[in-house]
Amino acid sequence: MGSNNGQVELLHIPEPRLTFGFGQKLVDVRDGITLFGPFTQDKLTGQLNVGIIGPRVQRKALKDYLEKIHKPVYNEKQELARPFFPGLEAAFGICINFNNIPEIDVPLEEIAEYLRYTDGHQRVHNLCNLYSDRLIRYGKEEEMPVNVWFVVIPDEIYLYGRPKSKIPFSEENIRLGLSKRQRDPRQGFLFDELNQLKDAYEFEVNFHNQLKAKLLSSRIVTQIIRESTINYSELWKNDKKIEEERKFDTAKAWNISTTLYYKAGGLPWRLGDVREGVCYIGLVYKKLHTDEIDRNACCAAQMFLDSGDGVVFKGNIGPWYNPKTKEFHIKRVDAKDLLAQSLNAFKEKSQTDNNPKEIFIHAKTYFDDEEWEGFSAVTKGKAALVGVRICDDMAIKLFRDYTYCVPRGTVLRISASKALLWSKGFIPRLQTQLGLETPNPLDIEVARGKQDITTVCKDILALTKLNYNACIYGDGLPVTLRFADSIGEVLTAGQNIETGVLPFKHYV
CA–CA separation, 281 vs 304, rounded Å? Predict the structure, then answer.
């Protein structure tokens, strides 16, 4: 459609390659791990120390499942999009010592009692404490180290541990809680029982986020698993539903194994055609209250090295939200502090005294002058700084005269600083597209600094392949923004959450 001299240009970025064991490069993570093993196979190998916490029946189901994925897992109908799983040890070179798994019991009757609480804050707070208190106590009292804790929960905790969830009406329900007036932090009570009830309102009604938040200060790494994910054939009576679920058996095995390997300290893969000395930062914002006119929000940043490893920094809380524009912007001093933390972590992670050559800051909105001055003050004379705005664009659809949609990696270059990138689409390796709908592009713009938009799109497409919380061909969003909302929710899941600079694995 013409050159890029002020004209719109349609082009295609080849699928980014990833590096696996022995330095081998392929585009599909499952191909790479099956053929060559994980990238850090020489650093993390052999027996792994894992623990399991949950009710007895659910712990037994999880152990049975973990034994199952030590062997190959097949789908009845083999598909390129859902390849077979070769087994945990065959794929990742690690295994679980089933003769020495620390187990912590969470009595089912105690879970059942708290599931009767009609007040969501009281229900979720107490359910979380059943797990978090025991995990923290283990860390203080026991000597057997645990790399990763599997937190296995009954499906009822998932169903009634989410925001706005309500338990079914029953005469046996427990109506225990405080009124909105009594929840006021300035309100005190003479009786300890009432003060203990008040603690629950300092936390968000979300089991996953609240549990992660309560364990941050203890640096306990967890993987939360619903019972029906691993034990659906025992829980469900619908044969057709079970048959449909079996299609995802290999995908589950890949995902759980990859997450386990990463959270245990390994790197399953890294970027293949990496630009050395580059780091990527995704800005994270989360309002503290749902009130639209309330401006207070938490700011944080995710930093990812050129290897793909990531860390999270919590910034300051302040009036960052603008109700009129519905955008978040931090002050100069806070921007300066946040980026200074990132540079220090880059040096520590890369084990060098050198600063990165380039720093890309990804955000869903534009950068205002004040916050950009704060970022620039840190990098002046040290590194090139580029601000990139990334958001979904639902206004433009691109069609072609074929059965499948446009290929993933399609770029509509609008100018030297702006383009549309299709991070979802037809994937030749899989001979299909992921999802049934015609995909929407990402609207990408170099909002601050200088860098060619095609190079920026190549980086962003590569960053869609660094989701270590799953084992998939590619994601729709770069990892710098994929987990921004969930990380913000963990950081604000409770008041006065204690955290420092922590690896990304603590939040997912």
Answer: 6
